[in-house]
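When time allows, look over one protein, given below as sequence and tokens. The question is which stretches look regular and which look disordered:
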Amino acid sequence: MEQRTGYLRLTGARKGKKTILKESYSEGALKITRPVYLTGGGEAYLYVMNPGGGYMDGDSYQTVILLEENAEVVVTTQSSTKIYKTRTSPAFQEMDIHLKSGSVLEYLPDPVIAYQHACFKQRTVIRMEQNSSLICTDIFTPGWAPDGTPFKYDLLQAKMEIYMEDKLILFDHVKLQPDNDLRGIGMMEGFSHFGTMIVIDHRINPALVEELQEILDTFLDVRIGISILAVSGFALRVLANTTQNIEKVLHVCHEIIRIKVLEKEPVFLRKY
């Protein structure tokens, strides 16, 4: 296996009424907590930790998640992912996710914060079986620069491929490069922070998405777009000028999906 700064592999399996961590392996600058059970539904909550404190020049990370049939797991991070100066080569993060029938993965990391001269690339490949469910989010924010100006990072790039029964159902490519006019029309539309949420579940229907859109229309100081996917699900985009405004939008969406689709009580995962 290629030498990486951090490597994490985990397998979630259903055992009775609970999901357990059937397998867990980590090396380098990635660690995982033991499962925590915050609600009565038996879903396992796992926190990914990076003892190194941030991503540096040339760092490479890989995470592999496998959920067996009917396993239910919520994965989040201990804190934000900080990308520092990467002058020579970008920091790279790769994720491979496999969801078997009836499994539910909620992947809800803290924001990625890109500081001055940061270059970060992310690739996520998700393979789903029929009747599996996915909720995943991402937030990209500009970090502090000595002169106080925004957009001092060099590149934020994220590619996502989602397959349903080996058929490509979603290809998403986000590329934020400050050499261009990021605040201009067709890019960030005057905003500096970017958030996204992908939800795929066979119970998602146009009526629910329309109801969600009506709720989102009440939010101020953000720009929100929501699109129905080729399968039962939707993609949500959020533009804002603060991380907190994006988190509010994503939290409300997550709460509605948990209550109306997953039939679970809402949960608040942030650590502050």
